[in-house]
Automatic annotation (TrEMBL):
Entry protein name: RRM_1 domain-containing protein
Keywords, comma-separated and alphabetical: RNA-binding
A single GO cellular-component term on record: catalytic step 2 spliceosome
GO biological process: mRNA splicing, via spliceosome
Domain named RRM: residues: 36-113
Record InterPro entries: Nucleotide-bd_a/b_plait_sf, RBD_domain_sf, RNA_proc/Spliceosome_comp, RRM_dom, RRM_Ist3-like
Record GO terms (molecular function): RNA binding
Cross-referenced Pfam families: RRM_1
Keyword RNA-binding (UniProt): yes
Source species of the chain: Cephalotus follicularis (Albany pitcher plant)
């Protein structure tokens, strides 16, 4: 589905709830009350984690920012996951979904089950790369085990 269609649907749903006077307990947001994470899509590629903190911290304290990047180039893929300290995701979704940053309309939505990726330290990352390189060399037949 087109991301702008999703933005409009969320905005329409929020507007309907406000018009009908639906209580917080009956809101569509209640499904996500235990999740501290929000998805942010449509981010300009040159935005940094610091930029996201500036924009999103106006609705609560941010405790985690995962700006997803391409492993090869290290460039942003244009989306991120952010966690609030005290589950203030409703404020972020209601107020920032459809907002424009550097001329691009962003999508902000709840995330029901986000698992924070554990980041490896530099040494562990190097060991993994080294192991993959050696393994691939064996697969391609460039190296063989010694015969003793």
């Amino acid at each position: 589905m087109n991301p702008l269609t999703i933005v409009k649907r969320i905005q329409n749903l929020n507007s309907e709830e406000a018009t009908l006077g639906i209580s917080e307990e009956a809101s569509w947001h209640v499904k996500y009350k235990d999740s501290a994470y929000v998805f942010v899509g449509g981010i300009p590629f040159d935005l940094t984690k610091g930029d996201l903190l500036v924009v999103f911290s106006q609705y609560g304290e941010i405790v985690d920012v995962n700006l997803v990047k391409d492993k090869g180039s290290g460039k942003s893929k244009g989306f991120a996951f952010l966690a609030y300290k005290d589950q203030r995701t409703i404020l972020a979704v209601d107020n920032l979904n459809g907002a424009q940053i550097l001329g691009q309309r962003i999508r902000v939505d709840h995330v029901s089950s986000y698992k924070k990726k554990e980041e490896d330290d530099e040494e562990t990352e190097w060991q993994k790369r080294e192991a993959r390189g050696v393994f691939r060399a064996f697969q391609k037949g460039k190296y063989t085990r010694g015969t003793g």
